[in-house]
Amino acid sequence: MRRAASDTLGKINSEQFQDIQLFEAILLAEQLALQPKNWKQLLHRHSASQIMSILYGQPPLESVHDPSVENIVHFGLYLARVLGHGAHLVELIPWLRFIPSRYD
């Protein structure tokens, strides 16, 4: 996964995404000037829109309430919770890792 991401999104290939990043930066600055209190949702929209544009060739996401934005934000929060320190019982009780998986 790391190598695939590096090959696709690495320094050499990242130049082709400059137009998308420039457009998204301008759109973010404009939206932040109009709605400064919604900065967190606007940053979520910005990140989700860049992901969808670069990886899937989608047009920019205009709304913070777009289902794609909400799905990406919820998935990111889920990953942060699941991969975070102390998220699993085996981290608190280390000997649990020696129990065979058939007893899960």
Offer a concise description of the structure.
The protein has about 100 residues and is mostly helical. It has helices at about 1-10, 20-35, 40-55, 65-85, 90.
Report on this structure.
It contains five helices and no strands. With 104 residues, the chain is mainly alpha-helical. α2 packs antiparallel against α3. The chain is extended, with a radius of gyration of 19 Å. The chain starts with a helix and ends in a 12-residue tail after the last helix. The model has no long low-confidence stretch (mean pLDDT 84).
Number of helices in the DSSP assignment: 5
Structural class estimated from helices and strands: mainly alpha
Helix content: 55-70%
In total, the number of strands is 0
Residue windows where pLDDT falls under 50 for at least 5 positions: none
The SSE order reads HHHHH
Q: Tell me, rounded to a whole number, the average pLDDT.
A: 84
Describe the global form.
Answer: extended
Oligomeric state of this protein? single chain
Radius of gyration: 19 Å
Distance between the termini: 27 Å
- In what range is the share of β-strand residues? under 5%
Describe the main β-sheet briefly: none
